């Protein structure tokens, strides 16, 4: 890596979610070689650049261009190609959590069904980072969302928070399985798109309520159970099962296209149509507390490490 192509960064503010460090919770398509610096998301400020650097300048905000850069640090030197400049007129939390979840949400809403204003989208894990982004981006596009969450002691508080983001309907996994859902879909258009981050019985229920010819996109498997689709749903409703992985999307598209996606999301942020997920800021030296908190059930707030 030629020195004149390097950018020297100081990381600051909200960093990657602590839970991402726990690879034992699931399967990751990309894992760095050890030893490695943890952290997959974050925002940094450029403090110096080499003589051949043209894309960024001192004072600019930047985020990683690809996964695995390692954001749990206060300073670093990277090649210009490893970074993407982002506007510094958006909230710091939004910049630090911009590169994965909102991108995933936007692409899933845009790439699998030709949705029109008034169409419905159903999703599980609706209080996750991706789920919160789906709610807001869908609302900006004029789409109606049916948001499935696990039941919990403070379900009304969670429901109110998601509706404040733009969720039209919030229902529990148990409610989704009830016979009364047939009446629900007399007033709400059957969704043409389902977004699945859970798998198992939850994904089967999403499929049951999809409109004929609809698509379910799987981007996670929190339940660690397979997606099971009945033969009748595939034959008689002609449903489509797809998968999405942002890292693969970035491999299939140019850096300029990814930068365009980032700037589109920044426009939504400026317009007040997209905010960062609910976050709890934790100093880096207290990382163990952040990890322990992230493992507790029904924790909707993301643990964000601050440098």
From TrEMBL:
Extract the SUPFAM superfamilies matched here.
GroES-like (SSF50129), NAD(P)-binding Rossmann-fold domains (SSF51735)
Keyword annotations: Coiled coil, Fatty acid biosynthesis, Fatty acid metabolism, Lipid biosynthesis, Lipid metabolism, Mitochondrion, NADP, Oxidoreductase, Transit peptide
Root EC class: oxidoreductase
Report any one BP term from Gene Ontology.
fatty acid biosynthetic process
Q: Which domain of life is it from?
A: Eukaryota
Where in this chain does the entry annotate a coiled-coil region?
Answer: 155-182
Tell me one GO molecular function of this protein.
Answer: enoyl-[acyl-carrier-protein] reductase (NADPH) activity
Localization of this protein = Mitochondrion
Keyword match Oxidoreductase: yes
The Enzyme Commission number assigned here is: 1.3.1.104
Enoyl reductase (ER) domain location is: 13-305
Entry similarity comment: Belongs to the zinc-containing alcohol dehydrogenase family. Quinone oxidoreductase subfamily.
PANTHER family associated with the record: ENOYL-[ACYL-CARRIER-PROTEIN] REDUCTASE, MITOCHONDRIAL
Under what name is this protein listed?
Answer: Enoyl-[acyl-carrier-protein] reductase, mitochondrial
